[in-house]
Specification:
Blueprint (H helix, E strand, L loop, with lengths): L1 E3 L5 E8 L3 E5 L21 E6 L17 H15 L4 E6 L1 H12 L4 E7 L7 H13 L6 H13 L5 H11 L9 H8 L8 H11 L15 E7 L7 H10 L3 E6 L6 H4 L1 H13 L1
Parallel strand pairs: 3-4, 3-5, 5-6, 6-7, 7-8
Antiparallel strand pairs: 1-2, 2-4
Helix pairs in contact: 1-2, 4-5
Length: about 280
């Protein structure tokens, strides 16, 4: 499905399920909503509206290759809310999508009735970097680890020029994002390889935004009930990141999913489903 923004761009989204609308924003940045799959079967209770952010999944790229700031994504989310005709929405953001969801809810607190922040971060400082390095070290004995770490370093250094080059790098590093990487996880990743990742936005994020963005000053403006959920073995957005968000959001509930990495809804779908459904329905 698609609609046209105020400035004439096409934004696309996937719609799945029935029940109250749950708007879902994926991460990356540069990923479409495809990687959500059925989002741990939350479609059984909710109508999932999974946005393909600008420049992904059939959504137009902006004319300005730098128009991938957090505020740009926030503006697109507001366009989607208007298109759906929702006075208020249930909102879920995963990873970079969680950063967008934090910024959106702080700017439009009256527009979000309940917020789910999944595997995300408020800022990335020395403590978060230390936790990431510990997570990488924990995986260092895996046969895929040297190549995955080399790919992560390539990605963060911006050593790619095209969407396809970036996609090749990202799928090499993706084993790091799971608590356990085996046949099932590799099969899941294989289903996502047909769509390239948007190189423009990830290069901008890594070069100019990743080390400088800071949601902490605006977290008190998030007044709705908020679920902050992450995997206990998420190497990049783990418990230390979630705890920091909860310290700034007054009405936040923290859930740490055992035996899960960054992709909690893939690794522990039942636990993810139950925690999110119970929170949204309570």
């Amino acid at each position: 499905m698609s609609f046209t923004t105020g400035d004439g761009r096409k934004l696309t989204y996937r719609k799945l399920g029935h029940g109250p609308v749950l708007v879902c924003h994926p991460g990356g940045p540069g990923f479409s909503a495809d990687y959500f799959g059925d989002l741990a079967a939350l479609w059984e209770q909710y109508t999932l509206v999974m946005l393909n952010p600008r420049g992904t999944g059939g959504s137009d790229r902006p004319a300005d290759s730098r128009a991938y700031q957090i505020d740009d994504y926030v503006a697109d989310l507001e366009e989607l809310r208007n298109h759906l005709g929702l006075e208020q929405m249930l909102l879920l953001g995963h990873s970079h999508g969680g950063v967008v969801a934090q910024a959106y809810t702080a700017k439009h607190p009256e527009r979000v009735s309940r917020l789910v922040l999944a595997s995300t971060v408020a800022h990335f400082g020395p403590e978060q970097d230390t936790a990431m390095q510990r997570g990488i070290e924990k995986r260092s004995n895996q046969p895929w680890a040297p190549d995955a770490v080399a790919a992560l370093e390539q990605e963060q250094a911006g050593l790619f020029a095209t969407d396809q080059e970036l996609s090749d790098i990202v799928f090499r590093e993706m084993p790091l994002y799971f608590a356990h990487f085996g046949t099932a996880e590799a099969g899941y990743l294989d289903t996502l390889k047909s769509e390239p990742i948007n190189a423009d936005t990830l290069k901008l994020f890594n070069k100019e935004i990743f080390q400088t963005f800071d949601m902490r000053p605006i977290l008190p403006a998030i007044t709705c009930q908020t679920l902050v959920i992450t995997g206990d073995d998420d190497f990049i957005c783990g418990p230390i990141c979630s705890e920091e968000i909860c310290s700034g959001v007054h009405a936040a509930r923290l859930v740490i999913v055992a035996d899960a990495g960054h992709m909690t809804f893939v690794e522990q779908p039942q636990a993810f489903h139950d925690e999110v459904a119970d929170f949204l329905g309570s």
